Amino acid sequence: MTHNNKAAGRRGEPLVLNRLSKYFGEREVLRHTQLSVAPGQFIAIVGRSGCGKSTLLRLVAGLETATEGAITVNDKPLNGLSDDTRIMFQDARLLPWKRVIDNVALGLPPERRGDAMKVLEQVGLADRANDWPARLSGGQRQRVSLARALVHNPRLLLLDEPLGALDALTRIEMHRLIEDLWQASGFTALLVTHDVQEAVALADRVILIEDGRIALDEVISLPRPRSQGDAAFAALEKRILDRVLQKPPAPTRESFTHPIDGESVWPGLPFHGVRWAV
Amino acid sequence: MTIPNSELSTMAASVHPDQPWVGPDTNIPLSWHKFNSVMRDIWQRLLPWLVPVVLIVVWQIASRLGWLSTRVLPAPLEVVTAFWKLAVSGELLTHVQVSAGRALAGLAVGGGLGLLLGLLTGTSRLAETLLDSSIQMVRNIPALALIPLVILWFGIDETAKLFLIAVSVFFPIYLNTFHGIRGVDPGLIEMGRTYGLSRWELYTQIVLPGALSSILVGLRFSLGLMWVILIVAETISAQSGIGYLTMNAREFLQTDIVLVGILLYAALGKLADVFAKALERYWLRWHPGYQPA
Q1: Which residues of chain B lie closer than 8 angstroms to A84, CB-CB?
Q2: At what angle do helices B91-123 and B76-89 cross, to 10 degrees?
Q3: Helix, strand, coil % (nearest 5) of chain A?
Q4: Are the CB atoms for A29 and A237 separated by under 8 Å?
Q5: How many separate domains does chain A show?
Q6: CA–CA distance, A230 with A219 (Å, rounded to integer)
Q7: What is the ipTM of this complex?
Q8: Strand A156-160 to strand A27-37: parallel, antiparallel, or no bridges (unpaired)?
Q9: Nearest residue of A to residue B200 by CA position?
Q10: Which among B195, B286, B291 has CB closest to A97?
Q11: pTM score, two decimals?
Q12: Has residue A250 been placed in a domain?
């Protein structure tokens, strides 16, 4: 009982990144990243593939250690994995040999299985509790994965492109669900995405990472729930997208590989009309 | 399905008698069609059994007429009688028990060791570097090539048989356990770590279940090998067991009992495979490949 009461009173954690740098060998992925997130804020991090946004998330999760700089969560320096932080991965990463309810209850003490069922109800999958994950659709799997993260009452939820593989309709449904659950629980959220529309739909602040640095920090003050057909929404989305696409990766004469991620880039790619950052 | 007969016959009447037959004969009552399709179904099921049954009948007749010497092959009915007599006297059960006991003891020792070492080398890089290449070298020695050495070491009694079976079932289980563990999705293990699972929980809830399908493949290979090695070991020398039964019968030219022994080995092998398959169906019931459609 005490746990539940405590959970209800819990708020999101403030998060501060101070001159955070990360190298993989010689390769610099993040350089001197400076970011401060208020408790309960919803941050979306956008950027091209390989810009370092996923690395940033993994650093905050404690799955990687920074080469330089520090991460402070709730005014305490981050030291490895934290019980108050949960991640939702790009692939749902459900255990195929556990039924849906057991996946949600992963890592929970047995007496809290009831909570798992409650959260499963919140994501609308209570009737699938005893199914195998293999029987679920992609969207349902991500909903189970969301439930699995939320049952721990995280104070910081990290979302690593969790909706990237879903179809457009399911994605819009998931946006609503994530927004509702975030508003109800008040956790701090960090969403990594390559979909600018998704970022504008969900976030209080959209942050663009370019070549390992924060290139844009845009506050989104549109009232919630946000409608994607809205003119202000569309204008904002266009502005950020234009900014994302503004700096084409400069190909050199010797090679056409991107200096950061090593991916080949076709020079002079016609970016106009490309909805997704490549 | 309840069209009255009178209607059917009017439909039939509309077909011109001179015209060639173009469809099912609607003049026949529907129940007859149903009966026909059931019969066809039964026929389809029985058809694969036709050749074996004919062979056995021909064999029986050939033996009766003296075309086939009982020294070569006894009549099928004699084999059945021999089986029955052995079963009633209790001899059959004793020998089967002894043989199955040997096989299972060898499997428990060799398979258990294979599982344990596979788990160890699969989990720890240090253990892999230390042990794996040595194990791979020993793996290339066929277990049966060890027979002379094994006889020198253990004589010809139970220990020798147990050793041979254990050695041969060790490798399939070891290899498949090792590869099963290495094949577990690292993403799932990472997920488990971020969800606060302890090392033990990670092992029992993610690594082992993830390796299980591979381990079971190893078990099925091992079960096949287990019977082969048992047969060889029991044929070399035994005081009891199915091998003893058949070798003893061979001395007295009792081909019917020899055949009973051979069929017993076949049945035990099949039983082990059915058991392993049932294990797969139960333990891998989460796997789309093992779910009923």
Answers
A1: none
A2: 90
A3: 35, 25, 45
A4: no
A5: 1
A6: 17
A7: 0.80
A8: unpaired
A9: A107
A10: B286
A11: 0.76
A12: no
